[in-house]
UniProtKB/TrEMBL annotation:
All copies of domain SURP motif, residue ranges: 21-65, 101-145, 279-324
UniProt name for this protein: SURP motif domain-containing protein
GO molecular function: RNA binding
Keyword entries, A-Z: mRNA processing
Organism per entry: Brassica oleracea (Wild cabbage)
Length: 396
């Protein structure tokens, strides 16, 4: 709706740069809604070029801006939100590394909101990096970033700051983000250690879930085998990349020191293998996201195929079952509650097919990739629960 004070012709910006900013902002808001307007205001809080958003009716360019917004609202979107290419194919002119950084950025914005976004903008402004050109509103891939943020917001629970002011983590969210982008090892404090990072493997679990939220289910592809997740305690065998028996090797049990937090399970059951741990984590992830529909469908299939490796579901006295329950509890803090989510029989079968495909030996998905698949959820869960554990009473 145009301003009621406007009686004469609508005034367009005369300066080409200002006009480009106004028109690009209108295109983003017309496509993504008023939430995008608030995001842009928060990011450009000290930028006078965006005063037309703050002054609104009192600004000479506001009516021009609103008219452009309406034009974009009435223009059909040529990029359907359910397009699987959103998650799988880098747009023309962007490298695979840049696409991975773009998706990781979208996940962090979806999880940590505008505070992370402002910190990132400030950081890349003070330290220019061509890898992050997509954060500029003038960049051709900025719209793709916003679409991914919208998709991931449906798969991630917004971060709650209730305990942040009472903790002082050595590794900030922004530092953790850049460690992931650069492929460096993470702080021991948040319980994450990653060697060679494949960002596409790391974000693949959330890609799978988010693609379901936007209307289609992303077929699980063959992930990179370069990544070894820090979800696994280090073992001597990890240095032998040619060892094909990793699935059967048992994990070294990690006994936390007294100063380490106890909220997230840092101790794995004696004798558990990487394959077993990967199955438990994947099952917990799907259960938290798809709730009762997935749970019923899984048990139905296990009745028909009792030989499948899901004994941890039926043995309450076993440490594997306790680990499974523990993981479901911490994943709940990262992923939104299903609420009234009701899966149709067809949707349930699609989700179960995707779940079991990830576990099939013939799918070419290595055990290390299974841990990579849940790596993003693990990372957010471990940060969340480190902060919560800092509030627990300290034992002498």
């Amino acid at each position: 709706m145009l301003s009621s004070r406007q009686n004469g012709p609508i005034q367009a910006p005369e300066d080409p740069e200002t006009r480009e900013i106004v028109e690009r902002t209108a295109a983003l808001v017309g496509t993504h809604g008023l939430l995008m307007e608030r995001r842009l205001l928060a990011v450009n809080v000290n930028d006078e070029r965006y005063d037309f958003l703050r002054s609104r009716e009192d600004h000479p360019y506001y009516d021009f801006y609103r008219r452009k917004v309406v034009e974009h609202e009435l223009t059909p979107d040529d990029e359907p939100s359910g397009d699987l290419l959103l998650f799988t194919c880098p747009p023309q002119g962007i490298t695979r590394k840049e696409f991975g950084a773009l998706k990781l950025t979208a996940q962090f914005v979806a999880r940590y909101g505008m505070s992370f976004w402002r910190d990132l903008i400030h950081c890349v402004t003070m330290n220019p990096n061509p890898l992050f050109e997509f954060v500029k509103t003038s960049d051709i891939n900025f719209s793709l970033l916003l679409r991914l943020v919208d998709a991931y917001e449906m798969a991630l629970e917004p971060y709650k700051k209730s305990c942040l002011h009472r903790t002082n983590p050595k590794e900030t969210v922004l530092e953790g983000f850049f460690y992931l982008v650069q492929g460096e090892k993470h702080s021991e404090e948040v319980g994450v250690q990653l060697a060679t990072i494949d960002l596409h493997a790391f974000v693949s679990g959330l890609d799978f879930i988010a693609s379901r939220e936007v209307g289609q289910l992303l077929p699980p592809g063959v992930l990179s085998t370069q990544m070894r997740s820090g979800a696994l305690p280090p073992s001597d065998e990890d240095d032998d990349d040619d060892d094909d028996d990793d699935d059967d090797a048992t994990l070294e049990v990690h006994h936390p020191s007294p100063e380490e937090h106890q909220y997230y399970p840092l101790t794995y059951p004696q004798g558990i293998t990487p394959k077993q741990l990967g199955i438990i984590k994947l099952t917990a992830l799907f259960l938290v996201r798809y709730s009762w529909g997935f749970w019923v469908g899984l048990h139905t299939r296990l009745i028909l195929k009792p030989h499948l490796p899901f004994g941890f579901l039926y043995s309450p006295d076993r440490s594997y079952h306790l680990l499974f329950n523990w993981l479901t509890n911490v994943y709940v803090g990262v992923m939104p509650a299903p609420g009234r989510l009701r899966l149709s029989p067809a949707a349930r079968e699609i989700i179960l097919d995707g779940f079991f495909y990830l576990l099939e030996d013939g799918s070419d998905i290595a055990t290390s990739d299974l841990h990579a698949f849940v790596g993003g959820i693990d990372y957010f869960a471990k940060r969340e629960n480190y902060e919560k554990s800092a509030l627990l009473p300290q034992h002498p």
